[in-house]
Amino acid sequence: APTTQIPAVEDAYVAVPPTRPLAALDAREITAWFGERKVLDRVSLNMPAGQITALIGPSGCGKSTFLRILNRMHELVPSAQLAGEVLLDGDDIYDPQRKLTDARRSIGMVFQKPNPFPAMSIRENVLAGLKLTGAKASKSDRDALVEYCLVRGGLWNEVKDRLDAPGGGLSGGQQQRLCIARSLAIKPRVLLMDEPCSALDPTSTRVIEETMLELAKEVTIVIVTHNMQQAARVSNTCAFFLAAQGTPGVIVEHGDTAAMFSNPQDQRTNDYVNGRF
Ligand code: ADP
Ligand code: MG
Fold first, then answer.
1. d(Cα 45, Cα 276) in Å, to the nearest integer?
2. Number of H helices and number of E strands within the chain?
3. Does the beta carbon of 242 sit less than 6 angstroms from any atom of ligand 1?
4. Using one digit for the tens of pLDDT, what is the confidence trace for 73-98?
5. What number does the ligand 1 atom closest to the CA of 241 have?
6. Does residue 77 line the site of ligand 1, with CB under 6 A?
7. For 5, left (φ over 0), alpha (ψ -120 to 50), or beta?
């Protein structure tokens, strides 16, 4: 198999960015198409600063598409088209005056399947989250950043004595926390998580939930989950997405999570949260 040339960490990375203030994310009238096919129809959702917002709903209703639109990652699909606005603390991330990298540097993403660089060390995995820009960080700055990210990712105590071990040697749950740590290296203001625990066992899932609850003090979190108990345990606000046969996804109901689970206003939400879908 071909080997990838990875730049030496010493030479490559920017100085440690400062911690940034909490930010809200506000999606307004998001309509999305893949080619001719409309997959989201005028979806609006406010994701308050410092809270955890859960996106729930059946497969195929547009949750992942919506999440990717929140940091412009859907632009990687050439057929994707978008109408609407996404405001990060009031600034439209789609403003043509703004660089794409602005949005990506403020809004991190963690995926369903843990995807650390397996051959790279734990330390290098964390530092790989920084962009190559030419500016260099001192060794002590890099060490401080690695510790900061691994502490926030809930992994520091388990790996602090083996930071040079390969990321691929960790358990699945640890790998996912390493990915969370890596996403924190840019000091994001918002962290998007697409079913981050779906590939993990219940114990690892609970550890990640605890990590998220701690992290929400510093980073606004938006999580897609199929696990209703998880949505109830971690989120402050919840949005229920649905796409009726052949129609684009919409938000049927959103609001305070506890209220939505105990007293859903829409019969379809009631059916879904009670497992009748
Ligand atoms: P969810 O995450 O809720 O399961 P998705 O956002 O992945 O839903 O998908 C929403 C709809 O968009 C689905 O009908 C899916 O088939 C379609 N879709 C997703 N990604 C693409 C793509 N890259 N190209 C074309 N259609 C896509
Ligand atoms: Mg999805």
1. 25
2. 11, 10
3. no
4. 999 999 999 999 999 999 999 988 88
5. 3
6. yes
7. beta
